[in-house]
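For anyone still unconvinced, we reproduce a single protein record, the chain in one-letter code, the fold tokenised, and leave readers to judge:
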Amino acid sequence: MTETLCPPAARTPADYKSATKPVWCPGCGDFTVLASLTRALAALQLPPHEVAVVSGIGCSSRIPAYTACYGFHGVHGRALAAATGLKVARPDLTVVVTGGDGDGYSIGGNHFLHACRRNVDLTYIVMDNHVYGMTKGQASPTTEPDWDSKLSPGGTGVRSFHPLVIALASGATFIARGYSGDPGGTADIIAQAIRHPGFAFVEILSPCVTFRPEQRNWKQQVRPASVDRTDDAARAARRIMTDDGFNIGVLYCAERTQYPLRRERVGGAVAALESEFVL
């Protein structure tokens, strides 16, 4: 009697979701960002145990708890530092970092610069809503200088941080922008970012309807970028510097040597290793 072996069923987005229910505010864009992430993982058919999702602090940083992958919820602003160490130690893992504009660009700004510069093979997804949502509506680095609120009457008067420009100048090799209201398109961008060999940065416009209800209008403002992606940094700089923040798609994609550089490891006995330190 011949035994018929059935091929394993293809993984679906549900296979990447945990039993923990999100606690975001109704209407938060992060719900669909989570859906886009699980869609992207399903499209790539990555085994959940071979994926690690790392985050810091904030509304969007809750995402590791909502996936069935390995997760690490770190301290404020340090997600990229933890993810870099993990990827260097375990290059076999697919490492995805999730966070927000406050966590990533304020206290985590220094790590952002150097993660771009090192070009470690990981994907950084930042849900940008131009406000600190979890801590009740303070202005974030990407908040418009004239945004009037109870905590910043008349606005901060401080120029907004431009993450895509900073990422390009710092050495990121994949730069894209998505919109939470387009889960299918955003999933495709995330999948491309994960496949990219090197540091991939994806900014996702994710409205905070609680503290920035006017962001509901983003649905009418976002549009596909009118130009194709480029691997020319100078051309990308001109495009991004003149961008109004609502062009969606992959804007820059290039190749550069990844960190760590692949050097032949010294193997063998302890004595052989000790000999390298003899003065």
Summary: The radius of gyration is 20 Å. The chain has one domain: 20-275.
